[in-house]
Write a structure and sequence with these properties.
The protein has 13 helices and 13 strands. By secondary structure, it is of the alpha/beta class. An 11-stranded mixed sheet has the order 1-3-2-6-8-7-12-13-11-9-10, with helices on both faces. α2 runs antiparallel to α3, α9 packs across α10 and α9 packs across α11.
Length: about 450
């Protein structure tokens, strides 16, 4: 499957057109989406019209931006002007009005991207798998009996199957990295505020936007497009002065990499652990100075729950809640409603202490490398794997949510497949504002491997 940066090169030299690329993406949607349920809305007519306009710009040598003509999807958690944003929920009135784009969507339009449609999410993006009463179950392209993860599962599935070259998701506790690991794709949760968000998330400053792609190079290119100060986001960072593609190929020679196979608190599937260890060996062979060391923090899950469950309570507080709502969301929202202001302040204190610990850790180590997840994809229709002692999605995502608390950049790249043919992800975490470094490490790994080039063998219909 052609990557976004390859498409742009092809547009520039005339070997492919935006119309051809868009038609290929629409054909993939037609062939595969009835099997995986990645899209909630597809605008084929509008996409082809936009592609024709892009084609004219390229022919005249006047593209409007680095993403001009790239077929793109948007998670149905981000506002899109003229299209409903229903967040997988039956509580939201489809009538709108839908008269504003989210910042990332606005930046994509400004660069001439071809927006194909919107992708699935669980109700209000509250959990780590992708199913909802409004849109049903989304399936993993490597094995449709399993979940692609979530909450940006539709976006990851779309990218994996060539239903658009890239997508924009959101990540409040792992929601771009979890499905990237389960689908063999790439996703970055950047430093909080780098991608502005509007309207603000009910889950507060845990929630980040993030690029979802097939390669690290594409993630860097998409990050260039969707960053940029936006006054609607009170916490938006200044527009980056340097492209994230700059220095991407500088390699890892001499970098100090801390490898933690378990954070001192996790039991991994043996195949996952073996593949991740092999991946770390690739980085060592590329010249990195690898030390096996844990950051040394206790599991912050209780603090995360206070903040996340409180967000769930806020989400539902505006509605008459009944059995249309995901029962798991109702359960955690009820817990969230029981927390006091003191509970939230205590959780925030834990969050700050964790951030301080990681800040000091990165004075010694440039990046921390871990598995993205301790397991591979499990059956659809359930929030947790078989045999789980907990009903909470956080019970199987211990490597992702800590870095939403700290607001650090965290990248997931594919690092192999189990004997059952399911993908495994490698996570690269850097200090806040060191997003380019996470991408550089991921690119060094992909330059030495080909896992990101492998595609699902889902039979077209």
């Amino acid at each position: 499957m052609t990557q976004a940066t390859e498409l742009v090169d092809g547009y520039r030299n005339g070997t492919i057109s935006p119309v051809e690329a868009t038609q290929a993406a629409l054909d993939a949607i037609e062939q595969y989406d009835d099997q995986v349920n990645a899209f909630v809305l597809v605008d084929a007519e509008g996409a082809l019209a936009a592609a024709k306009e892009s084609e004219a710009r390229w022919h005249s040598g006047e593209p409007v931006g680095p993403g001009d003509g790239v077929p793109t999807s948007i998670k149905d958690a981000l506002w899109t002007k003229g299209w409903p944003t229903l967040r997988g929920s039956t509580l939201i009135d489809e009538a709108g009005p839908w008269d504003e784009d989210a910042p990332a969507v606005a930046r994509l339009r400004e660069t001439g991207a071809v927006i194909l449609g919107k992708t699935t999410t669980p109700e209000y993006s509250w959990k780590g798998v992708t199913d909802s009463s409004r849109y049903g179950v989304t399936r993993n392209p490597w094995d449709p009996s399993t979940t692609p993860g979530g909450s940006s599962g539709g976006s990851a599935t779309a990218v994996a199957l060539g239903m658009g070259a890239w997508s924009v998701g959101t990540d409040g506790g792992g929601s771009v990295r979890i499905p990237a690991a389960f689908t063999g794709t790439v996703a970055l949760k950047p430093t909080y505020g780098l991608i502005p968000l509007y309207p603000p998330s009910a889950f507060g400053t845990l929630s980040h936007g993030g690029p979802m792609t097939r390669s690290v190079r594409d993630a860097a290119a998409l990050l260039d497009v969707i960053t940029g100060y936006d006054a609607r986001d009170w916490s938006a960072m200044p527009t980056p002065a340097t492209s994230f593609l700059r220095g991407l190929d500088d390699g890892v020679a001499g970098l100090r990499i801390a490898f933690s196979s378990d954070l001192g608190i996790v039991d991994n599937d043996p195949e996952v652990e073996a593949l991740v260890r092999t991946a770390v060996g690739v980085l060592a062979d590329a010249g990195a100075e690898v030390s096996e060391v844990d950051p040394g923090f206790a599991d912050p899950v209780d603090a995360f729950h206070v903040l996340w469950w409180s967000g769930a309570a806020k989400v539902l507080s505006a509605y008459e809640v009944d059995d249309r709502v995901d029962p798991g969301l109702r359960r955690v929202a009820a817990l969230g409603a029981s927390y006091s202001a003191s509970d939230v302040l205590d959780a925030t204190s834990t969050r700050m202490e964790l951030g301080q610990l990681m800040g000091r850790f990165h004075q010694t180590y440039d990046v921390l490398v871990t598995p993205t997840l301790p397991i591979t994809a499990f059956p659809v229709g359930q929030d947790v794997p078989d045999g789980s002692a907990s009903p909470d999605w956080t019970s199987w995502t211990p490597y992702t949510y800590p870095f939403n608390l700290t607001q650090q950049p965290a990248l997931s790249v594919p690092c192999g497949f189990t004997q059952a043919g399911l993908p495994v992800g490698l996570q690269v975490v850097a200090a806040r504002h060191a997003d380019a470094l996470t991408l550089r490490v991921g690119q060094a790994y992909q330059a030495a491997t080909d896992w990101h080039l492998r595609t699902p063998t889902l039979e077209a219909r």
